[in-house]
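Hello,

Following up on my earlier ticket. Below are the two sequence lines again, exactly as submitted.
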Amino acid sequence: MSVALTARLEQLTPLGKRLPWVTAGLALSVLPHATHIPIWTLLIAAIAAAIRLVIEVKRWPLPPKWIRSAIAFGALIGVLLNFRTLNGIDAGTSLLIVMAGMKLLETHSIRDLTVVVFLSYFALFAAFLYNQNIVLLPYMIVTAWLLTATLMRIHQTEAMSVREAAGTTAKMFLQALPLAVLLFLFFPRLPGQFWAVPPREKALSGLSEEMTPGDVSELSLSSAIAFRVKFEGDPPPARERYWRGPVLHQFDGRTWRRVGTPFSQQEIVSSGATYRYRISIEPQEYNWVFPLDMVTGWNRDRAFRTGDFQLFARQQQIAVLTSFDLESSPTYVTATELHRDLRHFDTALPANRNVRTVALARQMRASAGSDEAFIQSVLTKFASEEFYYTLQPPALDLNAVDDFLFNTKLGFCEHFASAFTVMARAAGIPARVVTGYQGGEYNPMGDYFIVRQSDAHAWSEVWLDGRGWQRIDPTAAIAPQRIERGLDAAIAASEDVPGRALRQNAALSKLRMAWDAANTFWNDQVVQFGTAQQGWLLAKFNIDHPRWEYLGVAMILALLGFFAVLSAYLAWRFRPRSRDPVAHVYEQLCRKLAKLGVPRLPHEGPNDYVARAAEARPELAAQLAEVRSVYVGLRYGPAPLPTQLSRLKFLVNQLQA
Amino acid sequence: MNSAIPTLITQADPLELITATTAQLNRVILGKEHQVRLCISCLLARGHLLIEDIPGVGKTTLAHALAESLGLSYQRIQFTSDLLPADIIGVSVFDRETSTFQFHKGPVFSQLVLADEVNRATPKAQSALLEAMEEHQVTVDGATYPLAAPFFVIATQNPVYQIGTYPLPESQLDRFLMRIELGYPDPTLERQLLLGQDRRDLVATLAPTLSPQQLLLMQTMVPKVHVSDALLDYVQAIVRYTRESPLFESGISPRASIGLLRAAQAWALIHGHQGVVPEDVQAVLAGVVGHRLKPRDDSAPKTPTEVGQFVLKEVPVP
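Thanks for your patience. The regenerated structure is below:
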């Protein structure tokens, strides 16, 4: 910074000195949005801020109103063109940020600065709509702190140092903390979608509605977290940890697809141990819950299970972290009757595709004799022949299964699942592909499982007459380590698995787990604090199933009460200091004389007042003269006698009001 | 000095002496009891007085009568636009016999100085007087000469709208403890004035009612007049009001707030009050704060007297 510039900054007006702070506050508030809003909005806001600062330093006039209006209108149109709407999180946030920049351009008073600071608060907290990650929290707190300190400094007539403002703000934050906690705990959580975060337009990684060879292996490269699961009691062993997602029925020779048509509901009877657990699902594209196969218990108001046993949340999209309390049983029996249509549907194969596979399957079925034997022989074929489990399967041609089974023989779980299902269908066994996740990483710090996109998996389900739907996982045959110990163990050491080295470093792994545990605690206890948790908390106070309306009214009353008590205390604490007994008696006197028709004027001294009263009421003149002299002696004279006070009280009491 | 008056005064005496003095002054200046009392309060509080009024209402007569009644040495300086500081302070003259410079003291070395029409002189001459007033001493050619004690300056000023004046800036106005106006006498008193003796002759006949020693003693008594907490609350409320009110460009200075208290104490003393009461403060309020508060715009009261009355009405007595 040149000397001249420094000198110039010294000469800035009070507004000019505050402007950089306000601008910095705005910049810090906008920063968390940098990744998800269009870059041009950020640029416009930044340019506006820079122009405004230059104007201040150079002491130029602000741009004329019509220019400012034109730019603001242009920005509005820009946002509209960019998003086709002004509604929704992304458009709203972009508009907010652009307009905050525009506001800087017309900032010429303390009031404008205040508006900019409030816009900054808004922009800052809007970041929570995108990401409730704990990482953001310290940043948010520090920025909010800075904004509040700036707001305080803006409104001080005397110059206030940053340190002083920061100290006072910190104190205010701490004072407000108990109230904030109480509001957080007891503010009624409204049911319904009104308060929910609207769905997001941006694609999120995760399973999709269809599966083409290569999809799952590609997804497996992502270490993003899909969901976390905390079991009540012992968790199921790894081989039972199948997290059921979309069930795919339609096959075109290469790609498997979900079907939208509902299937008739089927009964499921648990035949073994059941597990109760809470699953916290990270934001995703759909409303899929990934319960442990097979889900037997769930909240009917929040989720429903389809006829092909997929569990859906009753909302458009799981746009924010959402938790479900579920119950599952890994050993179960489904209904033993399969509808004719469904049997037909789940044995359908596209004509003239994968003909070699179909021929092979029919031949194997014939030689096996039974469905069970056929399935076993197929699995044996996968295990014993030269099939390899790899994260980098080669691309397949249109007849993907033929290509895989007879040429490449390198595949990931979706190749095996697809091939197996096609063979089963070719043999006349109803079969379908189930996608989801398998396994999960146990976090000992928080006693829960982390399931990542890298745990994505695909397997098959076949219908065996008399036994119902059965899960067959061909991957377990070819790479049993995948099921027992996870992807890292199943993939050959020579192959590159993203993050494997990281996971195998004990210290780093521990650190990662600790971090995730902290995140999970934050998610479960704070972000996910909703109706259920609040109900549980209220139940502790013997308030069962309160209606949110009552809770809201109670909250408002409690707040009013709190502030009434607080104001009463402050009024008492800072009450006028005239509580000395002489003043008190004098006030009594004034009240009495006011009743006699001679109210005291505020600026009237005691001598003048009493003289006026005596004039108005001559019959009291003698009494008043003594009252006056005693009072003036007590209140204004040197060394008053204590006895005079009782004399004054007596005299004032004697007065006939 | 006259030896006919008592040289010792007891606690009870000041009141009588002052009563006698005011009575005598009131015989000369008819119908201006309040202003006379303010003038004496100002003197007792060791302040200086600014009388602002049109010519011929008795400013000079009041000053002269006061000097005579208090037995003070008296000098009148007529301020004109060509007045030089030396005309006020004095001048060093070369003495041929001793071959040294001899300082000839100027009119400022009197106990009561009447600076007549102070706003007619240039700021340079004005400030020579005002500096002497503030410091109670004069430094000429490196030598410091103390001024007389008691030292009391009465400056008169024509209202500033008259042509050819140099109005005193606020910083200079602040040096005057009080500013008062005399105003026209009411008709009956004016009639007496017209019928009565010439005022100048009357002043010449006045005998001192108070000696300078007694005056000095009474000046030391002023700060000892009791001031209660309740009264300080009131004074501070006034001060705070002038500083917080948007009507005035700035509030009164700490020097002025001390002055207000001293003037009120002096007023309480000459009225025989045991302690200062709010009415004492109110009596001197317009005189002390009126000329110190500059109205910010048209919504504020304009003249110093109006300002004083306004502040008085706005601040409640605790």
